[in-house]
Amino acid sequence: MKIIAVLNREGGTFRSLDIDKFCAQAREIFARQGHELDCRPVSARGITAALEQAAMDGDVLMAGGGDGTVSAAADIAWKTGIALAVLPAGTMNLFARSLKVPPTLTVALEALASGEIRNVDIATANGRPFVHQFALGFHPRMVRVRKNFRYDSRLGKMLASVRAIGMVIKDPPSFRVELTIGGKTELRKISALAISNNPYGDAPLPYAPDVETGLLGIYITGPLASRGYMRLMADITLGRWRSNSDVEEMRAREVGLRFPHLRKNANAVIDGELVPLKDEIVKIVIHPGALRVLAPGNRALPET
Question: What are 275's strand-pairing partners?
Fold first, then answer.
């Protein structure tokens, strides 16, 4: 196979690496398995164009970076039919975790070089694909607040997130949305909504351990005061969020959302990226087995 690796130079891990040395090592690892690897480091500004070009040049599109880079690559891979490989170099690397890609870059290269092509699920929100999560309410507000802080490292981003969460908890969001799930429509007032590409597992981090169930995970939190959010954040940190009485969990193949009073500055978070929420109606659908990926062959659990 010919693998085109597009590496986001500004991705968390790549910032501190000798990227030329890393590329040489990657080529050697894949060559031992009989594959050709073309390594293309680029700036964050040029990542989309580089991914699009790579999809035309090889058999596998490898995306090296954080969840935003991976999501952009998945969009291109899904639309072109090329296989996607994920090299975890971001802060959370949630889709990489779902694919059981080891978090250490050199170990990940070895696992992918001897991996296998398989089909996994991908979801869309009004046609825009996502591999991890579509979120409304608390999460978008936290990301928007975090943008006011400067950080230059993975740890810095995590600390900025903690600061932002603390600020949002003081004034939690609340909004109305008409939910259609399983053919039933209900108008709800909520503080947070997350819809995931396959249901979350039981780990403290919110990611799907199985991306081949053909189902969306739906997580709803009703209107909460500051104290309720503090308790929920504690339960998430301790990995016991499923026992929190304020969290409602459902599963479905399709979800309809309608916003009776959509604000002009409303936002959603899609795979970690803050995006404008412009449509009064949003249709979220899962597409079973529609995304081809190169993943570790043994599907072992990632390192912790």
Answer: 268
